[in-house]
Amino acid sequence: MIKKIFKGTAILALWLLIWQAAAMIIKDNFLIPTPLETLKALFVLGQTGQFYLAVLKSLLRIIIGYALGVTVGFLGGITANKFSLFNDITNPAMQVIKAVPVASFIILAFFWFKSDDLPIFIAFLMVLPMVWSATQTALSGIDRKYIELAKVYKLSPVKTFFKIKMPFITPTLLTTCLTALGFAWKSGIAAEIICRPQMALGTLLNDHKNYLDMPSVFALTVVVAVLSIILEIALKQTVRRVLNAKN
Amino acid sequence: MLKINNLTFSYHDENIFDGFSLEIKKGDKIWLSGPSGCGKTTLIKLILGLLKAQKGKIELGNLTPSVVFQENRLLPFYTVMQNIELVGGDKEKVKEILSVLGIGETENLYPSSLSGGMKRRAAIARALSVPFDLLILDEAFNGIDEKNLHSTIDCIKKFTDGKTVILITHNPEEAELLGAKKIEINN
């Protein structure tokens, strides 16, 4: 454990050194502020209540969008796997969502939603097709032989789903959900930068860019990255706890 | 009584059964014999309702089937006991059958840690642990060594007394040990 912490700290220190070296070579804190300047900017930001409120509201928006995307994607994937007509109808929509750049959706949805709700919609939209197709593919990949076994012993559809299908698809689904969380976070912040809702990390980023306050832009970017890592660790821990409780 | 009447089934334009009929009385033990690809496993799947015949009728009456498939079909994320309980096996009966089959120590083990023969016997234990009137054994003894074959068949005989058994095998010794009557299927 100590070895692991030491290794992690050493790698972090190495990257901070590379950052410091780059800043010293370029010698322009507008292009690359030093780690110390960024830390100072973070300290200043941390003294305002607005910063914490922005962090909380951004987290809330993106988690809502993510949870909606996972839920609808999971249910949609199950339905599409079960009913081929439903799959035929919904498949083009999923393909379009996957193909269209997130910025296009942000601009389009800018006119459909209030700026407070847009990041929720964008996070939802990024997660939806990922979870949808992962669920559908994982379900269709289950060996028919196990489903036949359930039929012979007259297991109810609910029991077949939760006791046979779910354990088969869970590893794929969890991996997809972890990947989707990163996408939801990045796209949600991007939506905030463009639509500028009140109290949002994206709005703060945009404001500080407009003030040409690059150390604060760097500091906020660090906050976004650290929050993304924390969210991913929290989700991993929750999943591990749920799986352990089940066993 | 199991009645198969005028059964017609074709797959990919190939006629597997054309007007096939068969009656198996309750308590009969029969051995379906025939060359590979003649449709023995297909017939089992039709009896179990896993395939649908184009014509004809299969009447199971009130016989409840249980089956040992050609493959073990043990779910990898459950222990042997959990696999059997999932399909309705009674815990005490499962313990008894596993013990009679000589794999009593495997109840809390996952399939991945069992040998091929042990997995096969676990699949047999599953089929015997649930309430049934008709036992279907499709190449059930493949992978079981000579030493354990006799005790496994003895165990099956013990738990199928008065029940209907359909056996598919290429090994006449297995049919003989089980006391099954031969029915030849050919094209």
| Residue-averaged pLDDT of chain B | 91
Q: What is the percentage of strand-forming residues of chain A?
A: under 5%
Distance between the termini of chain B: 25 Å
* Largest interface (CB < 8 Å): A-B, 12 and 17 residues
Number of strands of chain A: 0
Mean pLDDT of chain A: 91
Q: Which CATH class of the largest domain in chain A is shown?
A: Mainly Alpha
Task: Provide the succession of SSEs of chain A.
Answer: HHHHHHHHHH
Oligomer: heterodimer
CATH architecture of the largest domain in chain A: Orthogonal Bundle
- Helix-strand makeup class of chain A: mainly alpha
- Helix count of chain A? 10
The named CATH superfamily of the largest domain in chain A? MetI-like
Beta fraction of chain B: 25-35%
Anisotropy-based shape of chain A? globular
Lateral strand order in the biggest sheet of chain B? 5-6-7-3-8
Our count of domains of chain A comes out at 2
Write down the secondary-structure element order of chain B.
EEEHEEHHHEHEHE
Rg of chain B, nearest Å: 16 Å
What is the CA–CA distance across the termini of chain A? 26 Å
